[in-house]
Amino acid sequence: MAAGTTRLRNARFFRGTVASALLLASLTPAHAACPMELAVYSDRDDAAWIDFRPTGESAVVTNTFKMVLDKGVVLDGMVMWSEGVRRPYASLMYQCPEGDVTGEEIAACTLWEGVVYSANADGKVELIAAEGVDAPQALIFPDLGPTLRLSAVYGEDGLSKVPWDVFALKGCQE
Description:
β1 (about 40-45) and β2 form a beta hairpin. A 10-stranded antiparallel beta sheet has the order 6-5-4-3-2-1-10-9-7-8. By secondary structure, the protein is of the alpha+beta class. It has one domain (about 5-170). The radius of gyration is 16 Å and the shape is globular. It has helices at about 5-25, 105-110, 145-150; strands at about 40-45, 50-55, 60-70, 75-80, 90-95, 110-115, 115-120, 125, 140, 165-170. The termini are far apart.
């Protein structure tokens, strides 16, 4: 497929995903302000929940969260901002070893990586913010569902359904 056709298809997909995110956000009830580090999100089909957690004193990681999926599968998530062109680069990992680990070990347990976008109630799309700000109405994890479907946790002994790429704010942890 030609590069121009692929870019056009990706642009149409992204516009459709953003439009869907805004519709989803407009259909969810308004919530009182909630800091990002305590926000709870769910996808439209309730196939996954995201619970953000305070990150603490990390100089590199700006957000941490757990993504709870079908059949009790829990993914550990974190967001770090890239150097140069600043982007919030997120990773979702499954059963990574702890302690002093190699890059190969981390790569083997990482199921999804990408930039995370946010959308507010007015439809403005931004990059996900670090802790300390009000949680946005929606988060977009591009290609999350298709990527998880191709991962080792999907199948007979793992996930039977995958989430949509858009998550709406559902509440705030106490």
